[in-house]
Design a protein that fits this description.
It comes from Paludibacterium purpuratum. With 369 residues, this protein is α/β, with parallel strands linked by helices. 26% of the residues lie in helices and 26% in strands.
């Protein structure tokens, strides 16, 4: 066993808050309760982001070392594990992106978040609800999916369930152990309910790029609010009004939050790539030339502060950034501070400024974040 490190403060454990000391190497070895004096740092589980397109000027679809760059940027903001998220694109471009990130999925680079696998956001979506996705949609085919999955581990697929044949694909993906989210969809409430019955388990950026809630046509949003156990949403305070966020939090037991971040995250205003699109960062957001929101510049530490700012208590906000996405992915040794879990830690001061991050016990340098 490597040398044990220790950190003391107010620790959020699965049983609640503990004042004391956490001892760890690559994994958490002990949490000991005892009284401390003076201002105490807050120690939370590292964040798990299931929807990350980019950061630090790098976009997943660029290939090369782009995923290393973005995973280092987000790690410095408290994200200790993530799913690298692809865009709708021609098959050859998706293959190239997956080939580039396959090695990062196997071995975590120093200073970087753990890449748990891939979120395939498209191309199996509805071209009538592209949002910021390029128009390279196609019908889902298991043969194509299997080709992708042989290159890099695909953990999550976004799909439009109303497209003919997609309900059977959802069932087949579930049988392969893949999570399926409904998104970029013109589907009805009934389409959403049918997809959940076929094995879909979540909703991609709830409220965005899907049919909305109307009292006579509940839409895909209505299916989520009425029936979902899990769904993701983007708490950047641009994509969704806080009132809609509260409605979703009240309705969906294990709702969790994502950044849907682009290459512009952690970067100054200007133009960046999002798949084959050029997007512009300004006024705290990222948009296409026509004004369409195109992902975000959000980081998970800011997501935590945003959730607290709209009224969530700190433990609840933390769970929606760590424990809930871990449970969604079926990853039980991350997203919580307990013995034998990975030492993925975030440390905050009294003003919720991030002061330290550990990924699998590795202390990161935050000075250039």
């Amino acid at each position: 066993m490597s040398h044990l490190q220790q950190i003391s403060g107010r620790i959020l454990t699965p049983e609640g808050w503990v004042e004391g000391t956490l001892s760890f190497d690559a994994k958490i070895r002990r949490i000991e309760a005892h009284t401390l004096s003076g201002p105490l740092p807050t120690i939370l589980p590292g964040f798990i982001d299931t929807h990350v397109h980019g950061g630090g000027g790098a976009d997943t679809m660029q290939g090369g070392d782009a995923v290393v760059t973005l995973s280092r940027l987000h790690a410095r903001h408290g994200t200790t594990s993530l799913l690298a998220t692809t865009m709708t694109a021609p098959e050859a471009d998706i293959v190239a992106a997956l080939t580039a990130l396959a090695g990062v999925c196997e071995t975590r680079p120093s200073g970087a978040a753990r890449v748990l696998g891939v979120h395939l956001e498209g191309p199996y979506i509805n071209r009538g609800k592209l949002g910021a996705q390029p128009d390279n949609t196609c019908h889902a085919a298991l043969s194509q999916f299997d080709t992708f999955n042989r290159i890099a581990p695909i953990k999550l697929v976004t799909i439009a369930p109303e497209i003919p044949g997609h309900l059977d694909i959802i069932a087949a993906l579930k049988a392969r152990g893949v999570r399926v989210q409904l998104g970029h969809t013109l589907g009805s409430y009934e389409d959403g309910v049918a997809a959940l019955k076929h094995g879909a388990s979540g909703f991609t950026h709830l409220f965005n790029a899907m049919t909305g809630l109307h009292h006579r046509e509940p839409g895909m949003v209505g299916a989520a609010l009425a029936h979902a156990e899990f769904a993701e949403l983007i708490p950047d305070l641009l994509h969704i009004h806080p009132g809609a966020m509260h409605a979703a939090i009240r309705a969906i037991p294990h709702l969790f939050c994502v950044t849907d971040s682009t290459a512009a995250a952690g970067m100054p205003d200007g133009q960046y790539r999002l798949g084959s699109h050029t997007v512009t960062k300004c006024l705290g957001g990222v948009r296409l030339a026509d004004g369409t929101l195109a992902g975000s510049t959000l980081t998970m530490d800011q997501a935590l502060r945003n959730l607290v700012s709209i009224g969530l208590d700190l433990a609840d906000a933390s769970h929606r950034l760590s424990r809930n996405p871990a449970d969604y992915l079926g990853v039980h040794d991350r997203g919580r501070l307990a013995e034998a879990c990975w030492a993925d830690l975030t440390v905050f001061d009294a003003d919720l400024n991030l002061t330290q991050v550990y990924v699998e016990g590795e202390s990161l340098v935050l000075a250039d974040a």
